[in-house]
UniProtKB/TrEMBL annotation:
Keyword Hydrolase assigned: yes
UniProt entry keywords in alphabetical sequence: Hydrolase
Domain of life: Bacteria
Database matches in Pfam families: Abhydrolase_1
Protein name (Swiss-Prot/TrEMBL): Alpha beta hydrolase
Record domain AB hydrolase-1: where: 39-263
């Protein structure tokens, strides 16, 4: 299998003329996994070790949102709009049913995809995320701006502060994660523009102010995963509440881990995620 850092970027044009950049990796599978990235993320912000691990058993398809990276168009102004675009992307691929893997904002988008078209989804993994209207989600803009200012001042990648704990272990794990993100050297994706980034932040703020979604009548199996100290989407009570929202759910909380607990504990997460998706 070609490792994720060497997988070529493809483009797809939908019937409504939306252009999506995406990558596809893994073994052919009846139900592909659609991976939805975090705020400001592009195709190179996925931990290649985690994607390679999932791709050992599944076909993983990773799109850029509209207005981000190699995709065309403008960034959607709402989380619901992003979900509609992802559904259009999935249908343009000719897929009848998929699994979802949403990280952070991608978890918000995944929930809206389920809400809009539940029959499209077989199973879902929601990581570093919370329910619509969840506690503290409206504060993502403030937390992101504060962490960005600190990162600029210290010449440090902002994900060091947003994604990991500030313990010695957290700092060490952050450094290893950031090193993995840089292992792809050729044909890297374009970074998000400032306008699209602020549009995504406004969409998150709006989504965090809206009423929760009632998923109680759905039987879609859901795996909820987070670190025990997520400062972006507070673990307590969001992870518990998100798991309780679904009638068929499992919850995993990693110790001494933050927003990116699934990448900090990548080996364990891959094993559990693959077992869940089976």
């Amino acid at each position: 299998m070609t490792p994720y850092i060497n997988v070529p970027t493809k483009t797809l044009v939908t019937p409504t003329q939306k252009t999506f950049a995406y990558r596809k990796i893994g073994v052919p599978d009846a139900v592909p996994v659609i991976a939805l990235i975090h705020l400001s993320g592009n195709l190179d912000n996925w931990d290649p070790a985690v994607i390679d691990g999932l791709a050992q058993e599944h076909q993983v398809i990773l799109p850029d949102y509209q207005g981000v990276g190699g995709s065309g168009g403008k960034a959607a102004k709402t989380i619901q709009g992003m979900a509609q675009e992802i559904r259009e992307f999935i249908h343009a691929l000719g897929l009848k049913q998929v699994d979802l893997f949403g990280f952070s904002m991608g978890g918000f988008v995944a929930q809206e995809v389920i809400n809009q078209e539940p029959t499209l989804i077989r199973r879902t993994i929601l990581t570093g995320t919370g329910p619509r209207g969840g506690q503290g989600i409206r504060d993502v803009t403030k937390i992101s701006d504060q962490s960005l200012a600190k990162a600029i001042f210290t010449l440090t990648d902002v994900k060091t502060y947003l994604f990991f704990t500030r313990t010695p272990n957290g700092k060490r794990q952050a450094a290893q994660f950031l090193k993995r993100l840089k292992t792809r050297h050729e044909n890297r994706d374009r970074s998000i523009g400032w306008s699209a980034y602020r549009t995504q932040l406004r969409a998150i703020h709006r989504w965090g102010s809206e009423q929760p979604i009632d998923f109680s009548k759905l039987k879609i199996p859901v795996l909820v995963v987070n670190g025990d100290h997520d400062i972006m989407v507070p673990t307590k009570p969001n992870s518990d509440n998100l798991a309780k929202t679904f009638s068929h759910s499992q919850l995993i909380i990693y110790p001494d881990a933050g927003h990116a607990g699934v990448f900090q504990f990548g080996g364990d997460f891959v094993e559990r995620a693959n077992q869940f998706l089976r």
